[in-house]
């Protein structure tokens, strides 16, 4: 009998227990930072669930790893699908999956700035890239071990994840600067 364990459900049980213990011990000190940390852990659980589809118990037959190492192959897929079938379900499904890969690590870029106080975009981009690389590697390893369904290493996922996470970081940095600039000008007006 195959069981597929939902990473979010299992992780959420432990996260809720931790939150309860944390509130008993620390009450409301540093509450905002702690809530951001809880939301980050919940986000990570969801990324793991999205990228694995759940954990298979018992492990299934071994999976032969597949690698897609051609950058921007998804664009060729779009063109090919469009030429063969037009704007059908397969075309829009492919576009949707690419969009999901683009936005999946957007929150990570935000967390890098807000939670981890990263200031340099080069460090943020490298961190997002390495996070995406880890995701691609664990997908192949877990699939090979039979713990997840047919996952592959896809360079396009790596590129789109990195672009999305970088956009998240740059967006929060821009919003922060705009807020600080607006706050500065309001202070100047009130002083006049």
Secondary structure blueprint with pairings:
Blueprint: E1 3-5, H1 7-26, H2 31-52, E2 55-57, E3 67-68, H3 73-85, H4 89-104, H5 106-114, H6 121-144, E4 153-154, H7 155-191
Parallel strand pairs: 3-4
Antiparallel strand pairs: 1-2
Helix pairs in contact: 1-2, 3-4, 4-7, 5-7, 6-7
Shape: flat
Largest sheet: 2 strands, antiparallel
Domain tally: 2
Q: Which strand order spans the largest sheet, edge to edge or round the barrel?
A: 1-2
The ordered H/E elements are EHHEEHHHHEH
Kindly report how far apart the N and C termini lie.
75 Å
Mean pLDDT: 91
Query: What low-confidence regions span 5 or more consecutive residues with pLDDT below 50?
Result: none
Provide the structure class. mainly alpha
CA radius of gyration is 21 Å
- The number of distinct helices, counting runs of at least 4 residues, comes to 7
In terms of DSSP E residues, the strand content is 5-15%
What is the share of helical residues?
A: over 70%
| Quantity of strands, as a count | 4
Protein name: Antibiotic resistance protein VanZ
InterPro entries: Teicoplanin_resist-assoc (IPR053150), VanZ-like (IPR006976)
Keywords: Membrane, Transmembrane, Transmembrane helix
């Amino acid at each position: 009998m195959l069981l597929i364990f939902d990473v979010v459900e299992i992780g959420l049980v432990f996260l809720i227990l931790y939150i309860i213990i944390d509130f008993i011990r620390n009450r409301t000190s540093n509450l905002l930072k702690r809530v951001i940390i809880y939301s980050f852990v919940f986000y990570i659980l969801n990324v793991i669930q999205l990228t694995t589809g759940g954990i298979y118990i018992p492990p299934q037959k071994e999976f032969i790893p597949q690698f897609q190492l051609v950058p921007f192959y998804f664009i060729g897929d779009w063109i090919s699908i469009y030429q063969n079938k037009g704007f059908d379900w397969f075309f829009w499904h492919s576009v949707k999956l690419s969009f999901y890969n683009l936005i999946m690590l957007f929150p990570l870029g935000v967390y890098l700035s807000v939670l981890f106080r990263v200031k340099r975009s080069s460090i943020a981009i490298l961190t997002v890239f390495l996070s995406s690389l880890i995701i691609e590697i664990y997908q192949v390893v877990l699939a090979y071990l039979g713990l997840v369904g047919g996952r592959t290493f896809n360079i396009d996922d790596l590129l789109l994840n990195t672009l999305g996470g970088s956009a998240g970081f740059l967006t929060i940095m821009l919003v922060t600067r705009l807020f600080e600039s607006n706050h500065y000008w309001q202070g100047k007006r009130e002083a006049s």
